[in-house]
Amino acid sequence: MKVPYIDLKGQHKLLKKELLKAYTTLLDRSDFILGQPVVDLEEKFARYCGTRYALGVNSGTDALFLAMVSLGIGNGDEVMTAPNSFLATASSIAAAGAKPVFVDVGEDMNLDPTQIESKITPQTKAILPVHLTGKPASMDPILKIAKKHNLFVIEDAAQAMGTEYHGKRAGSFGIANCFSLHPLKTLNACGDGGMITTNDKKVYNTISQLRNIGLKNRSESDLWGFNSRLDSLQAAIVNVKFRYLDQWIAKRRDHAAYYRKHLEGLVTCPIESRGEKCAYHLFVVQTEKRDALQSYLTQKGIETKIHYPIPIHLQRCAKSLGYKKGDFPVTERQSERILSLPIYQTLTRDQLDYVIETITHFFKN
């Protein structure tokens, strides 16, 4: 049996008629830049996340970058984040002109709040927690620390659409919160795209201009801006998929529970703590025999991924930050043990059983 890591063809085969209808409607309207599909999607996002505003942008990376620029974060400033995220989290900080400052993660793979305060300096301007894999970061203590030290909180919710923390959805905690609509995300475009949610009117107005060359109307600009608009075509596609989001998350959660039931004791499975509802963009298991297991699964037709094999602080691009191996022991240990199993919503029970049986066979032998 073949079990791909992701099945975009299968997803789009089921939605092809709806997607083509949305595309035809857009062609008839021809409002390709910041058109009605973008407005509709922004309204859906804000309502879903429980915020006053949402803004569509070119990518999840641009969302992070524009959030920081809108808050005046730049040269000489520091932004604290986790070293085990996708590279874009830290690179957006650097692109804004600030310095990424890393804090190790806990066993849940998210920012460890107990280590934050020791890293705060007069230059620290924001904490950027990542809801990695769709598991919520510990927002209550993070927000408490941020309030105590007068710091901004910017959520990296790129992997966390639909994730909940004590009854509130990811994307509703920070002053600006950032999502990715990359094709590999649960709520995905057929190209790049991103979204920013906020309750702050000033942030909303500033990003509205920043994403559109700094224009406040067709003829006037108060600030230098960027070209980071979400295409109406991508918004139209995501609007179709939005109808199925909760259904897809429920299916992923079912898959996660099934994996946990049958794999616990063989590998370390992700768990949900009290008050959490994980969206399972990824299902990451851990084992000391990660490389051998991945190789065995590949031989048996099961595709897996590693998110991520090289922590950001050990990347060549981060050399100037002065970090070295051993600085973040939990992140580094996890990077050698983590393995992402297929978790997408169109996985069949037969495919799930095959993955479980193959992993079981590997450890028995």
Topology:
Layout: H1 8-29, H2 36-49, E1 53-57, H3 60-70, E2 78-81, H4 87-95, E3 99-102, E4 124-128, H5 139-148, E5 152-156, E6 164-165, E7 168-169, E8 176-180, E9 194-198, H6 201-210, H7 232-242, H8 245-263, E10 276-277, E11 283-286, H9 290-299, H10 329-335, E12 338-341, H11 349-364
Parallel strand pairs: 2-3, 2-4, 4-5, 5-8
Antiparallel strand pairs: 1-9, 6-7, 6-10, 8-9, 11-12
Helix pairs in contact: 1-7, 2-7, 3-4, 3-6, 8-11
Strand order of the largest sheet: 1-9-8-5-4-2-3
The total tally of domains equals: 2
Biggest β-sheet description: 7 strands, mixed
Please name the CATH topology of the largest domain: Aspartate Aminotransferase, domain 2
* CA distance, first residue to last residue: 20 Å
The CATH superfamily of the largest domain bears the name: Type I PLP-dependent aspartate aminotransferase-like (Major domain)
Residues in helices, as a percent range: 25-40%
Low-confidence stretches: none
Mean model confidence by pLDDT: 98
| Total strand segments | 12
Précis, in short:
Helix content is 38%, strand content 13%. It contains eleven helices and twelve strands.
